[in-house]
Structure formats: structure tokens, C-alpha cells
Amino acid sequence: MPVNHPEQLRLLLESVNTIALVGASDKPHRPSHEVMAYLQGRGYRVIPVNPKLAGQTLLGETVCASLSALPEPVDMVELFLAPERTDPVIDEAIRLNIPTIWMQIGVINEAGAARAEAAGLTVVMDRCPKQDIPRLGVTIRSRAGA
Q1: What is the per-residue pLDDT for 1?
Q2: 78: domain range?
Q3: pTM over 0.90
């Protein structure tokens, strides 16, 4: 069962340091771009993932082609993808043992969530951290290396 209890969400968001944002866009008006900038402003390290933009710089971070190409371990994968495109990324996150998968509002994949949870990952589905952080009063601790 995906995490949706407010206290669980708050604790999760306060424990995360580094996020891989899959479906990152270089277009400032796109929600993934707005959310990435917001999360960076709140002290998270956000590494953009988009095979079409790989190697480019987005909001000061080099875009990676896939989760496997990430330069360091991440605490969470945030999915800005159509639900039918999430299975390969969920399976890659499971293989890499990334602790949390967060599916953005409108991104619902019950079977993928069940696979991830069966593998021991935490799953948040159909939510937006940009909305949840202020709503839940999430306090961001200082980040290592920040």
C-alpha cells in the first residue's frame, strides 16, 4: 500500500537528501522543471534524468540518461512520466535498490507499486512533493555538502 499518511510523508520528505527526477524537462513552464527548481530551493540535491537531454545541464545539474547512469546513490526517484512508461523505471529502481519511488500526481501504477513494495521499497503515488512539503510543514535539515 503506497504511503499516504501525512506523518509518514513528512518523515519521508525530511529524511531524503538526493532525488533522481525522471522525466526532467528543460522547459521552464513544465511541472517537472518547476518541481525540480522548488526542491533544489528547499535544499534537496536533484539529479535530472531524461535520455533525450543526457549530458546537458539543467538547473546546475548534469542530466543523466537513466537511473543506472546516476553519478551517486539517491534516496528517492520521482517519476514525471505517463503511467504506461513507468514500469521499466520502477524495475530499474528495484534493481538499484533505491529506497523510495515517488509517482507524481496522475502517475498511478498499482502493479509497479506492488512490485517495488514487495522488494522492500517505499512507494508514494499520485502526490506532489511541491504541494506536500508546505502542507505538511516539512523542515529540511541542512544537506551534506550543501
Answers
A1: 74
A2: 6-62+72-135
A3: yes
